[in-house]
Amino acid sequence: MSTEPSSQFATPRIDVRALLGLYDPADTTDWGPIRAAQLHAGRQLALFLLGANVIGAALVVMMFDGQAPRWTLIGWAVLTGLVSVGVTIRRLATRHRDANSATLGDVRDTVLEGIALAAVWSVPPLALGSRADIGTAMGLWIVLSVMLTASAVAMAALPLATLSFLGVLGAAIAGMLLLIGSPLLAAATVLFVVLLMVGCFQRGKSLVVIRANEIGLAERDETVSLLLREFEEEDGDWLWETDSARRIVRASPRFARSVLLDPVKINGMPLLQALAGAHWESGEFSSGLRTLADKLKNREAFRDLLLPVQVGETERWFALAASPRHDEDGAFIGFRGVGSDVTAQRESADKINRMARYDTLTGLPNRLHLNEQLARAMAEAEKWGTRCAFMMIDLDRFKAVNDSLGHPIGDRLLGRVSERLGHLVTDNEMVGRLGGDEFAVVVRDASDGARVEKLAQTIIDSLSRPYEVDAHTLYIGASVGVAIGPRDGRTAEMLIRSADLALYRSKDAGGGVFHAYEPQLHVKAEERRVLEMALRQALEKGEMHLEYQPVVAAGTGSLTGFEALLRWTHPELGVISPAKFVPLAEDARLIVPMGEWVLRQACDEAAAWPAPTRVAVNVSPEQLHNPAFVSVVASALANSGLPPERLELEVTEGVFMREGTVAVQVLERVLDLGVRLSLDDFGTGYSSLGYLARTRFSTIKVDRSFVQGASRGQKEPIAIIRAVVALAQSLGMATTAEGVETEEEHRLIQDLGCTKVQGYYFGRPLPVGEARALASRDWGKEAAAA
Question: Quick one: which of 368, 465, 545, 709 could link to 717 by a disulfide (CB 3.0–4.6 Å)?
Fold first, then answer.
């Protein structure tokens, strides 16, 4: 059974098969109580049906007495009485008298009652009426029509039984009339029976609809009762009412309990006094209570008015709503409203608000909270003609700690950093975490510029002190960018951008310093943005090309190979230094596609050189952190036809500083291809002998800074070069000195034991044609020996 909307109630749409008891629909309606109602209605008229059967049987016996054997009539009458009594007993059976539910079978079985009664009542018209005179036949027709009507009335609640009775008996009567030659009466009888069947069905349907509505109302009443009971059991809303003098009248007991007052004594007390509690005498009212007083005084309706209320030793939060009341003459007679204790909801909202505005790792204000505070500071500075400041702090070398020791150590280190920052600020500043290893400070009053600079330097000094974390002594630093508002930005977003540019300058200077924003930083940032946009299209537009710098044997000066160097010539910006665009490519995550292009171009060019001339290609750590790099190398070698031993990949120590990555495994797989490996800039970074022993390097390159220092006679660079050479010899590796520019440097490098040399003394980076011509020279046995 489903429902459809009507003007007042939902009118059920009855399934005919379910109504007749032939089918149990699989919907949400419980038909058990409805079937019980059908049986109950049939039981109510059971005695009426019995009386109609007995009287009808007596009339038939009297009518045919003398026209049919008496024993036949008496036998039929007894049979009719027994069937009628049996049906009545079934209807009055105590099994369903007090039941609230009935099964499908209980209703379906009533069809037997209808068929049994129809069978016994079909005997007179078929056996007696067809041979009787016309007067007796008409009398029988009248009696049977009355029986049809009586049965339709008595059994209408059970349509299946009623329809069975009417159908069988109606057919018998029509047959009798046809046999005595009255087809018109037979047709009238059929029409009468059909009308009775329709009426019976509609009455049965009405009963089911009424019962279904009753069940729905009962369920609704039960639901409302449950809700009301739950409302009463829980500490829900309470009612309050005041008179025209704002005194409480007819106080709800729950209201009185909410403010810990006697339900009787609270009547007559001013509402504000009841809510103010201990603060009533001192007059120290909350802003919410003052708002309530204004609303009551002005006789204004209000809703969702929040106010803190001191209840005993605890502070609670009430939400009030009310409307003014007037009598029949329009005179004001007070307020009536509702209130509720929303302390739990308030605490939950405060918790959610804190989670939204505070960093879960450090407990410091997050980016959202910092932005809000900076916006307030900007507004105050604008209002009073003062200054505020915003500092952006970026930790130096934190990434190396996080990658080498893991994120748990990194997280604990961030916690220590936040503790130190928290000890450095006063009420005039707010320190927070922007995310990652970036922090920020909002300085509400920055009128004293010297104090702001001192705070920035103090932050750098404090954060640069060593940390003890899980038995590790960690050294990091900090870089700071400072922007003053509203001078460096008239909105919070502009000021943050200015501080970010100042921070970028500090990082670009090597870190460990602070810089204040300067207008030209915006110019540099715009240049960087334009350069990055151009760089993203440089490969597609063919603006990139390679040059090749010779690498020679230190002892003989014979060519051993070239280092491929990427160059960029922009049609408008001109030649752009690699020192400028390579870091930009790494920041913009363009280094991987660019590196792949360099590798393929270098392999294609080196394949045209005579053996055994090698080509060296620099590889970024980002390339090695991608497992697909192995396939890139294999593809470049296969497509170019270059033997793997003639390709040398140059990597820096930074590759080995990210533990837990795939870089080392990728290098091993590349070496398995037969490619050679060179360690570039050894000694300038996080030098470690561990990865030298674990990785199959063929060459260690000595940075040009050591070469220049050694040429000036500095002892430390000379000692470092000797140590590197000795280390390389012990591990079976070659050494290449970079940046050799003079004959004196060349002789020094030879004396120190370096096996290969690279620098302007032997040749600048050459275009493709010149490099190819140089490689094609006959270097004789020296080149073969290299």
Answer: 709
